[in-house]
Structure formats: C-alpha cells, structure tokens
C-alpha cells in the first residue's frame, strides 16, 4: 500500500476514533445493565486478578481480557468507563478504515478511486454509528467479535489469493488467523460456524490449487494459532468445571435459542418506565410459531432431533417464521440497543435505512456477476447471521448484514445517481411501492410486542 493511501487511512481512522470518543464522552453513560453489566463484572475481575480471578467461563476469556487492558488505561485517570469507550472507538475506527477497504476489494465493488473507498468507509462508519450507537455506549461483545471475524476472512483471503506474498509470511498470517478464529468463537459462540468454514476453506482451496508446500505450512500454523488462543479457556474450564475442554460452556444455550426463535420474531431489552412497558424482556411474539410448540406439547427441546422433527413436520410454517426473523432485522429502530422509550419517533431512522437499502440492492443487482470468489467471501461475512437466524434474533446479531448494506449503498451511490437520472420514473415508482410495503410491515412488527404497543410516530 502506498504512503498516500496509508495517510488516507490514517486520517479516516483518526476522524472516526475522535468522533466516537467525543460522542461517548458527551453521552457519559455510567448506567450498565444486563449483558453489559455481566461483561463489566468480568472486565473488573480480569483487571484485578487475571484469568484466575474470573468467576465464570460462560463468556469466554478473551473479551474480558481485552476489556481489562483498556480498563487499566481508563483507571490511570480514575475513570472505569473511559477504557470501554477507548476500546469501542479503536475497534470502530479500524473496522471502517482498513477492514472496510480490504472487504470492498474482496467483494469486487468497482471503485477506480481508492481514496473514494477510504472516504466511503468513513461515511459508512458514521451511518453505522447512528443505527448502532448502543454497541459502543455499552461494553458489549458484538462489534468486537465482528471486527475479529472480518480480520479472519481478510487473512484467509490473502493466504489463498495473494500470489505475491511470500510463503513464510503466509505462515505468520495463518497463525494470526488461527488465533483470531478461536478468539472470535470464544467471544461469541455463534462464530463457531465461521471457525469451521474458514478452516475448510483454507484447506480445500489450497488442495484444489495443488499448493502442497503452502498448505503444509499454513494449516499447522493456523492450528497452532487456534491452540494458543484456546489454552487459557482450557485452563479456565479445568479450574471452574474440572474438565479439559477448549469449548466455551454455554449451558445448553443453543437449544434454548432454537425454542425461543420459534416463539419470538424478534427480541429486545427494555429499561424504561414500567408504565409504558412492564417487563425488561421485550418479546415480539410469533403466534404461528408458538402454536406449533403448543400443538406438539413442547415446553423445552430435549434434543436437536426433536427440533428437526418439528421443522420437517411443518416446513412452510418454519420457512415463514425464519423469513420473518430476517425481515425484522431490516428495522434498526432502537439504536441505543437498550430501549428507554418504545414510542419514540422512528420515522427518520426508517426512511434513512430504507433509502440506503434501496440504493444498496440496486448497486448489488447492477454489479451482479456470477463470479465464484465474490460469493464465497460474501457468504463467509454473512454466515454467522444466517446461522443465528433460527434463534431469538436481536438486531445486534446482524451487524454484518448492515455493514454490507452500507458498503454497497455508499460505494455504489455515484453510479446509482446516474442510473436514477436516466430512469427516474421506474426508480421513483419502485422506491414508493417498496417503501409502502416496508412501512406496512413495520406496523405489523411493532404490533406483535407482548406488552405495550409501539407506533412509528
């Protein structure tokens, strides 16, 4: 990368970092609840005694470790929250500067002006912050995991596609990729599917290309990286559970998620006044799914076989359930993540996101080419989203999808304007019809909440 390009990335990184820090300092949030409070507790435990001081392995060891590093920095000025904001701002700035650029090249989003890609990353980052600011206000693991996932995919891509990279450096990349692959699973266990997919891709691609020597170097290096990152979790599991295992203990969470995902179209957490909504758990109820469970007499799944049997007995009903899950993830209407007011006007957020999605879909379809490579890498980025789809979905689980939408919208906006200008009638008609359907479904979704009804305005 040329010095001028590095300077461009440096400027965008600095702008995103300082914008994030300024906003977070001005918000000055010290109210930590639920998942965020759990992570905060682990952060303090790790900072005050290392891994041997962690009271649970349920959230893994790596994210508490990362939090603890920044916690110590914050405590240098006696502010235990400053470190959380620093960490969030660093991951935010890296992701929408360097990672954004490499992913855009990987997905072959045509841009002759590399500086435009750099600036586009900054704009996408600001838009992302508008819709998902709660992921930075609170010490939550979702964006950190996503950042590591992108790094994994970028490293695997460079190993199998970059012919100019020396094999010894590919070995180093493979070790880092392996460390981060286990790390991203350790932070959010749903990334286990990405973990397995990346290992298979690394192996099969090099086998198909007959790069025997490179495979003999990169695969052991990757496995060594995985083992290096897993050792602390193995030690933690042995101390707390008396077992030698690299797995993150989840206490049967996946089966519970599958059951909740049938009953609920969407889940959120409410922290406002009880007069407006009388529970912290904000369920968007799927009456069809709940009826399927009731008819089968299922209170709790006892095995994956029981779940599969139920799905196969009602395939179209389950298709509808999971399509509704996906559609609900296209409504980022509560950017704070923890909801204080369910009646707050959502119209500007809905209009902005729908417009971005409309531009992104247009840009995606216009640039559609049946190239093998692009679809593989796009699939890898979105794989965790599709894997969590059968569970109790929360909008924060789908930030990878939103990252891709904003990328296509911003980088494809210039060409979209040219196409729009030459076909104004068709584009306006398509936009208005789509918007009517989008808003109609928004009302339907908001009407499914278990306690209290929210409106768009």
Spell the H/E element sequence: HHHHHHHHHHHEEHHHEHHHHH
Average pLDDT figure: 92
Beta-strand content: under 5%
Distance between the termini: 48 Å
**Count of runs of 4 or more consecutive helical residues:** 19
Structural class: mainly alpha
Widest β-sheet, arrangement of strands: 2-1-3
The biggest beta sheet reads:
3 strands, mixed
* Radius of gyration from the alpha-carbon trace, in angstroms: 23 Å
According to DSSP, the number of beta strands is 3
**Helix amount:** 55-70%
Per the principal axes of the C-alpha atoms, what is the gross shape?
globular
**Uncertain residue ranges:** none
List strands and helices in order, with pairings.
Layout: H1 3-27, H2 34-49, H3 62-75, H4 82-106, H5 114-132, H6 134-137, H7 142-161, H8 167-187, H9 192-208, H10 212-241, H11 253-263, E1 264-270, E2 281-285, H12 287-296, H13 304-313, H14 315-328, E3 338-339, H15 347-366, H16 372-388, H17 399-411, H18 413-422, H19 424-446
Parallel strand pairs: 1-3
Antiparallel strand pairs: 1-2
Helix pairs in contact: 1-4, 1-5, 2-3, 3-4, 4-5, 4-7, 5-17, 7-8, 7-9, 8-9, 8-10, 9-10, 9-16, 11-12, 15-17, 15-19, 18-19
Features of the shown structure:
globular; 3 strands; three-stranded mixed β-sheet; 457 residues; single chain; mainly alpha
